[in-house]
Amino acid sequence: MPVDEAARGPEADPESVARKILLDQLTGQARSRKELADKLAKKLVPEEIATRLLDRFEEVGLIDDAAFARLWIDSRQAGKSLARRALAHELRRKGIADEVARAALDEVDPEDEETAAQALVAKRLRSMSRLDDATKTRRLVGMLARKGYSAGLAMSVVRAAVQAAAGDGADDGAEQMPESLP
Fold first, then answer.
1. 89 confidence band (pLDDT: 50, 70, 90)
2. Are residues 49 and 26 in the same domain?
3. Total number of domains constituting the chain
């Protein structure tokens, strides 16, 4: 059974151990430079070796914070329908520089963001039929705020959806009424 180099102890070459850690971390998904630096520090890799290897990995294109930011944004927008503000916060936590994050976030289309907000509201609104409009509005705006949508966008999307839902309900009731009353 092969023995992990990191488990061999002090006789293992620290640079080989660090290289293996980096390659293992990059297998399967991209990571930011800060995430990788944190992992090396956690594994007690000497700082000068970590910096040298991170610089080399960046040089050859295995570490690219700008590409990581774009991939992260695409993934989180599609999967979680997060707005730019929430995405910026997540990128900051991942150690992406503000200017790199801003450049990646500038590629987000405001219309796509509004469409995502509308889809979220429409999906959630279906399960709120028994609530009054004020409660629906409060809960839906809160949900969008937690996902990073601006207050103005959240209010306009929610108002339109709640009014449309109320209009649909009124139309349904009108269709059920008899055409002529005695």
1. very high
2. yes
3. 3
In a domain, residue 1? The reply is no
Nearest to 94 by CA among 63, 57, 74, 68: 68
pLDDT tens digits, one per residue of 106-149? 988 889 889 999 999 999 998 988 989 999 999 999 999 999 99
Cα–Cα nearest to 141, from 165, 171, 161:
161
Helix 133-146 and helix 110-125, axial crossing angle in degrees, nearest 10 = 140
Residue 181 pLDDT grade (very low, low, confident, very high; cuts 50, 70, 90): very low
Q: 7 lies in a domain? A: no
Range(s) of the domain holding residue 121:
110-173
% helix, strand, coil for the chain, step of 5:
75, 0, 25
Answer whether 158's CB lies under 8 Å from 121's CB: yes
Say if residues 21 and 43 touch (Cβ distance below 8 Å): yes
Q: Does residue 179 form part of some domain?
A: no
